[in-house]
Amino acid sequence: MTNLEVGVAGIVAALVLIAIRIPIGLALGLVSIVGIAVMFNMNVAWGMISATPFDYVGQWELSAAPMFLLMGFICSSTDMTRGLFLSLRLYLARLPGGLAITSVGACAFFAAALARLPGGLAITSVGACAFFAAASGSSVATASAMSRMAVPEMLDNGYDRGLATGTIAASGTLGSLIPPSVLLILYGVYAQVSVGQLFMAGFIPGILSALIYMAMIVIRVKLKPELAGSVRFEPTAEERREAFRDVWPLPTLILVVLGGIFSGAFSPTEAGALGAFAALVIAAIRRKLTRAALFEAVSQAVISTASIFIILIGSLFFTRFLALSGFPRAFADAILSVSTETWWILLAVAIIFLILGMLIDSIGLLLLTLPILVPLVNEAGINPIWFGIIVIKLLEIGLITPPIGLNVYMINGALNNRVTLPEIFRGITWFLAMDLLTLTILIGFPILTLWLPSLAY
Amino acid sequence: MMRFLERIIRWLNIGTAAAAGLVMVLMMLHITLDVGVRYFFNGQIVGTLEWVSFYYMVALVFLGLGHVEMKNENIRVDLFAQMMPAHVQLALYILACMLGLAFFGMLFWQSLSDALRATRRGEEAMSNFRFLIWPARWALPIGFAGALLAIIANLGRAILRRQAL
Amino acid sequence: QTNFIANSFYEGAVPMSGEGYIRWAELVQDLSDGDLVPEVFTGTVLLAPRAALQGIQDNVVQVAHHAAIYTPSDLPVANAVQELGFAYSDPLTAIFAVTDFSMNNPVQLEEWQANGLVYLGAYATPAYVLMCSNPVRNLQEIRGKRIRTAGSAVSVWVEEAGGIPVNVPSSEMYTGLERGSLDCATNAASDLVDRSLLEVAQHTTLLSTGMYWSGPQWGYNPGFWAGLTTEQREVLMEASARSMARMVIAYSEKADAGLQASLAAGGNVYEPEADLAEHVAAFRDRTSADAAEKARTDFGIAEPEALIGDFQDTMQKWQELLADIDPEDEDALTALAMQEIFSKIDAATYGVQ
Ligand code: NA
Ligand code: NA
């Protein structure tokens, strides 16, 4: 067998192992060790095992990931999103746009401008998701935090079950696009692109996605009012005051984190550490920092970090294995021999993600494909920041498409099967269509992605 | 006996995971303090970068591994396996455990010999100063050993119950 | 036909990778008429910088660049000699003198052998300069400035001069300068363009704060090396000689181009004022005088005076050899390196155990 054939065999073997429920990191790592031993000898494989984990885990850029995970878990374990959600609802019901903008910022302003429009509760949820996305590093965490509070509320108010769950599943995917984002950190480290610039690049596409979701909800509910049920919501003065008192934590935290990164005051790692610290302080001020909440946040963060990094280690092995087999170069040549046009490369990448996205979820898929895609992008001369955002958007679409859609399963589980999987997937169809629209816009207008990073650097 | 062993393994892994959690909080405080010192006193805490890269990250990633294995929190694809009959699922789970033992066994063996070698020669890194890094190497064999033990415990449990975990 | 893997952890734009590996690979193929075929990996795809030495030892790669400062406890001799980096500022002299020294000094040769590598040529960076967001021309202006340094001698000097040495990854130099958490970076002036520093550091001071040469530009796995024929080894030696000439010429051009680009973009380039220049000169003399003592205490070298003395003599020798040669003449430099270094090495026995 030539090295290239071993590389292809390795990819097939890894996919098969992953399909039969072998943990992804383990599948990638083991295939790489065997593949290198076949191509060279066991000595080279031992050398890789020895040289890789210690030297790559300690990269400064990667250290942002556990910090943002910790911050997100502190937010959810101390119930930091509830006040914002309630407030957004209140402002949507009555208050004029001007007050909203001063209180909770641009996203809620937009929601408030739509206050008289139908489907308010769903729009509120999208807005709240966008906010939580800015305080959480992952999509699944965003969807999980929002599903527990927003979905029951919508269902109780007679919302269409598909719309209610679809809203959260889809808006949850904003978590990886709107910074901070663990996926963007991993991409940045792999593609050797500044994580700070990637964070800035993801901001406008994330907000754009949210706005397009909102517009779609408005139009659909206008055409078919029964989708939004009959909302009766008469908040008392006391409820109003209470919601107002608890609205500040999330915006404050976002100000610290995104303000710090966008102004260039902190590096992503520093922003993550400060964000986690600020979340602790905020929780303490709100008297929610119980020992149990802290314990839960830290242990969740430890588990998430370790389970992500074991895939990362497997993926680092896989990168070396594939590089030594010459597969990425052959693959890039094959793709580029058809055409070197950007649209063709994106189409090829989209097809790969569409197929593999049926099988594997975002972190695994990202780490599985980057060893092949990064050389391709470099060779084709595509802007790696722009490409990164497109890749993340594609991965996020994978989170809500059947058969594997982690967000969908998570919401289904969080609601104890109150809404069935087919119902959720049906509700998502509209959001998928909007995602394709967003993707087209992002591909057609790279400036939307590249404008913010160009301002800052 | 089996249950006793399982309990010991569980507590060992909870212990190292607790250490990982502690390290995570320490890392947060250390970086926060460093930023604070920079902004308020125009100073710096010497060695923040080195501590984060060589100690905190390594400890918090590897010491958490065993706990993740124990709780079966590995990211994997359940879809196809779920469509299989129960005994096939069990067989696939046993296969996964065997492969896990092989993989983490190799990682344990190599990282142990690396840690021993680094300790023997007092491994250092150089930045603006020389910095001992051999103690950090020990997080790897400890973490991988935790993962190995956790897989053994889970494998025993799955076989006794005749059911995939 | 012999296929083998070659690795350099720098990006392709850096001469150590571009000239030293990518163009070197073509040269090796040409010189051997297609008999020797290196497959080159640049960047950290294959090996992290710290892992290059072990990668050579374990035969993961057959030849690689390794910067000895990443492994101070493994390569004490190379690191003891690197401590003199502050005392010199001419990369042309350094690249050939370090090669000469590293392939002939018995103590250094023993270190390569003990660490499982065959040394076949050096790299040398241009002298590092100060690139700052505000002018730093004298001792007054350097006081309290946060300066990104890489290496112990420079950071000690920065501290003595009243600045604050800061260690951040080189990938964060740009943002550090931009956001003001750094005031200066000490690096090769080529970074003004390569890392776009000219956008955030408009003030460059041509104050030499040392250069780097430690460790092999081409370190071969001994087993692989022993398996080559004498002719193949001779080809690789000639490839080293010419590639070193190319690297040092390209690096100087890049450094000059960086300064020119900075000037064209409205930046300033200064010579240091007398007090700053004197402060560095005094420090430089002191480090040279202390080098032997430091080699003994910090790196545990048994006979430090002999080692440091041999190194200084070799540097002196090459200063004289190069005095009459056009520093941009690739062929002349190659011929000199062949004549003074590689023709005196027996390819049949060198590095073969
Ligand atoms: Na996010
Ligand atoms: Na999917």
From TrEMBL, chain A:
Residues 12-112, 115-446 form the TRAP C4-dicarboxylate transport system permease DctM subunit domain. The chain crosses the membrane at residues 12-40, 60-79, 91-115, 121-142, 163-190, 196-219, 247-266, 301-323, 343-373, 385-410, 430-452. It is a multi-pass membrane protein. It is found in: Cell inner membrane. It holds the Pfam family DctM. Its main location: membrane. InterPro entries: DctM, TRAP_DctM. Keywords: Cell inner membrane, Cell membrane, Membrane, Transmembrane, Transmembrane helix, Transport. The complex comprises the extracytoplasmic solute receptor protein and the two transmembrane proteins. Part of the tripartite ATP-independent periplasmic (TRAP) transport system. Belongs to the TRAP transporter large permease family. This is TRAP transporter large permease protein.
Automatic annotation (TrEMBL), chain B:
The chain crosses the membrane at residues 12-33, 53-70, 90-109, 138-160. It comes from the Bacteria. The keyword Transmembrane applies. Keywords: Cell inner membrane, Cell membrane, Membrane, Transmembrane, Transmembrane helix, Transport. Belongs to the TRAP transporter small permease family. PANTHER family: 2,3-DIKETO-L-GULONATE TRAP TRANSPORTER SMALL PERMEASE PROTEIN YIAM, TRAP TRANSPORTER SMALL PERMEASE PROTEIN. The complex comprises the extracytoplasmic solute receptor protein and the two transmembrane proteins. This is TRAP transporter small permease protein.
